[in-house]
Amino acid sequence: MRQGLAADYAASMSFSPRARVHLQNIVANWRTIAALIPESEAGAVVKANAYGHGVAPVASALYEAGCRTFFVAYVEEGAELRTAIGEDASILAFNGAEPSDADLARANNITPVLNALPAIKDWLALMDVPDYAVHIDTGMNRLGVRMEDVAELKALTDGQPPVHILSHLVDSDDRSRAINAKQLERFRQAASNFPQALKSFANTGGCLMGQDYGFDVARPGIGLYGGGPPLPEGVFLKPGMTLEAPILTVQTVQPGETVGYGATYTFDTPRTLATVALGYGDGFPRSASNKGMASLGGITCPIVGRVSMDLITIDVTQARDLAKPGAFAQFIGAEVLLEEQARRAGTVGYELVTGLGHRVRRIYD
Ligand SMILES: *Cc1c(COP(=O)(O)O)cnc(C)c1O
Fold it and tell me: Alanine racemase C-terminal domain spans which residues (predicted)?
């Protein structure tokens, strides 16, 4: 029964989707981004399990390559991260910390990014105050000390100033927006009050805007994984993962037939279909129904009908010779770019990769 199956598929003994995570591509992307801000240190954002790629392998590969500042959302994520990297690397946790998190932060040498004056007051009231960072809100109106409160922040923290000051761009996806330069100006102004602190401003999109946005430490996330805004001329990023699903069955349908739940797609010519093991139960969005695509040997195979929980059907008519049970169709990778698939599904690369569930086996190469 296994005859004709790809060797790696037979070895896995499982008709399940997989994400081949390309650690060397992630490291190469980190270096590419670092080269855009040569006077700054390039950190790495590895929150949400390194955007679904696996925090321990990704962080340890980046650490080996020389990365020494890592960012997560939660102190707990930082504690998990710490086991994968050396003691000499800094870890910052964007979502802040309560005084009750102080022991975990201390034990794992994690610097929480405090996001409001009340949280900073609580932190400063701790015995033997652990290092902390402060987020300044320069326009997002989401997290951070507001510009009009910076003087109060400075006075409040005079005895034990923050070790790190950061802010976050509203629309770095669109380099033409005036808000970027406005935020940059506000950040410079706020940061000048904390001369001893490291300054950090640029996510991936900020790094693509160049050295002015780099400050001391940059915080690229999505670009490490091959996604993010359109790239400037001459800059290339590689896929962080290849998401693949094995073909379970191949069949031919006749004009007038439909496929999948709700019969949302009717064929007008005879077509060859392949049904693959991947679905919204794996985090692949249902909104890709009749819109997303796969690739089989470099040939585009559109998703036809609805994405269901465990299955997707693709039209393999053009790739009929390659469509065999056990062959893998690509849904994210060099042939189906992350942001292209995301756009088709009405979302962004961030959501697509962070949404991938536990049933998607991560394989590291
Ligand atoms: C997630 C996050 C980043 C990384 O942003 P990308 O767009 O993925 O590069 C940087 N800074 C903050 C505060 C974040 O929350």
Answer: 240-365
Residues 219 and 98 in one domain: yes
Is residue 51 among the annotated active site residues? no
Do 141 and 196 fall into the same domain?
yes
**pLDDT exceeds 60 at position 358:** yes
Mean pLDDT of 257-264: 96
- Residues 279, 164: one domain? no
User: Residue 163 and residue 134: Cα distance in Å, rounded?
Assistant: 8
Strand-pair partners of 277: 311
Q: Are residues 318 and 186 in the same domain?
A: no
| pLDDT, mean over the chain | 96
| Pocket test residue of 71, 142, 170, 183 for ligand 1, highest count of atoms within 8 A of CB | 71
* Predicted confidence (pLDDT) per residue in 197-225, tens digit: 999 999 999 999 999 999 999 999 999 99
Which residues form the domain of 185? 23-225
Say what the pLDDT of residue 12 is: 52
Q: 296, 327 in Cβ contact below 8 A?
A: yes
Indicate whether 120 and 75 sit together in one domain. Answer: yes
Q: Whose CA is nearest to atom 11 of ligand 1?
A: 203
Q: Tally the domains of the chain.
A: 2
Residues 6+ positions from 53 with CB-CB distance below 8 Å:
19, 21, 26, 225, 240, 241, 353, 362
In a domain, 317, yes or no: yes
